[in-house]
Amino acid sequence: MSEINDLFANQVSYHCTHITNDIELRISTLNNLKIWIKDHDDLITNALKTDLGKTPTESYMTEIGLVLDAIEYAKKNIKKFTKKQRVHTPLHEFFSRSYYINEAYGNVLIMAPWNYPFLLSIEPLVGAVSAGNCVILKPSEFAFETSAVIKQMVDTVFDAGHVAVVEGGADVADELLKLNFDYIFFTGSEAVGKKVYEAAAKNLTPVTLELGGKSPAIVTESIPTDIAAKRILYGKGLNAGQTCVAPDYILVQESVKDAFMESIKKYITEFYGNKPLKSVNLGKIINKKHYERLKSLLKNQKVLVGGGIDERSLKIEPTFVDANFDNVLMKEEIFGPIMPVITYSTIDEVIKYVNSKPKPLALYLFSNMKEEQERVTRECHFGGGCINDTVNHLSNHDLPFGGVGASGMGAYHGKYSLETFSHKKAIMHKGTRIDTPYRYYPFDEKKAKMIKRSVK
């Protein structure tokens, strides 16, 4: 563990040289990162295939492509972001000008998960580097092939004082969390997020926590069930349901449940064929432990469609289960291709239930009624989401992505990544030619009147 301490000390010294303040250096480094990714996309896709069974197309669509977009956005916007941002100065501070500077926090720790091991390691890294930080990145040990590729990439593109990868398990994470970083960015489970937050508090280190939760998909009778089924299955099917923003359960209006389930059956066949477990488009569960956890959740369930499992390949069919609010599947985030289906009568029931539970990372409403759309988006508490779609809100760099309450704190993507990894340093620059006497001692009634008049 002394190697970790030495690496951290080296990065602290590196940042103190102010090398990373150089905007052109940041842009050049990001460009080199983009070139490496494009030149080695086969290494990345092969690693993701080994770790999670993803096809090259899914890997590019949900990981590599999003990283390349993030790099390009940062390159185009760094100069604008780092300029002095002028703000209004109140009248009583005349002969002054006010502005703030977006300044890097300094030394940052990024802890990434296994479910999107490339995207959720490198997109935060892009934000941190763009803002001028030095970074220690810890990928997940469960996605071991992708972790190795990330280390190879970072070692090639970056000076170790600027960015370095530290591989290892929970013991390594614990050692990293003992260090006095200036900022910690964590993506993962709520349970581990609490440990990260507790460790950060010992050093008063600010954090971003990107967690998860039980994200509902609400299907009303005002939406064509065919389009709702297709888009929900798409969002759940990505990465075999191992997605923090995947729809976790369905609340379907009872009048359209049967039609909705018929559409689900149709699109499972269309997406994965008659034998989904044999489909190259169906990803695998990350490891045996998580496979067994999901397998146990299927015991004694009333399966509406799916239910097939294959221990050899660690695959589970997209499985929809007839459930109620007391079902074991409703106790915690599923994080796999299993979907409880619960019926409801009125939108009031939906809003009441969603708000009675911890705030989810995402919410997906399928409705063509404006009143329902406005009520659910206004009255339900959640991190972000879509109306008449799933998952794709996170692909828009102009939208902040993050949770609230139990689903996380802080946000990133696009300009929000740059803001997350920066401190807004406020400056008031006052002239010296005139110096008003009313603010100085001794105070008297005349000065008091002047001060009162200056305040609206």
From TrEMBL:
<dbReference type="InterPro" id="IPR016162">
    <property type="entry name" value="Ald_DH_N"/>
</dbReference>
<feature type="active site">
    <location>
        <position position="210"/>
    </location>
</feature>
<dbReference type="GO" id="GO:0006081">
    <property type="term" value="P:aldehyde metabolic process"/>
</dbReference>
<dbReference type="Pfam" id="PF00171">
    <property type="entry name" value="Aldedh"/>
</dbReference>
<dbReference type="InterPro" id="IPR015590">
    <property type="entry name" value="Aldehyde_DH_dom"/>
</dbReference>
<keyword id="KW-0520">NAD</keyword>
<dbReference type="InterPro" id="IPR016161">
    <property type="entry name" value="Ald_DH/histidinol_DH"/>
</dbReference>
<dbReference type="InterPro" id="IPR029510">
    <property type="entry name" value="Ald_DH_CS_GLU"/>
</dbReference>
<feature type="domain" description="Aldehyde dehydrogenase">
    <location>
        <begin position="23"/>
        <end position="426"/>
    </location>
</feature>
<keyword id="KW-0560">Oxidoreductase</keyword>
<dbReference type="InterPro" id="IPR016163">
    <property type="entry name" value="Ald_DH_C"/>
</dbReference>
<dbReference type="GO" id="GO:0005737">
    <property type="term" value="C:cytoplasm"/>
</dbReference>
<comment type="similarity">
    <text>Belongs to the aldehyde dehydrogenase family.</text>
</comment>
<protein>
    <recommendedName>
        <fullName>Aldehyde dehydrogenase</fullName>
    </recommendedName>
</protein>
<feature type="active site">
    <location>
        <position position="244"/>
    </location>
</feature>
<dbReference type="GO" id="GO:0004029">
    <property type="term" value="F:aldehyde dehydrogenase (NAD+) activity"/>
</dbReference>
<dbReference type="InterPro" id="IPR012394">
    <property type="entry name" value="Aldehyde_DH_NAD(P)"/>
</dbReference>
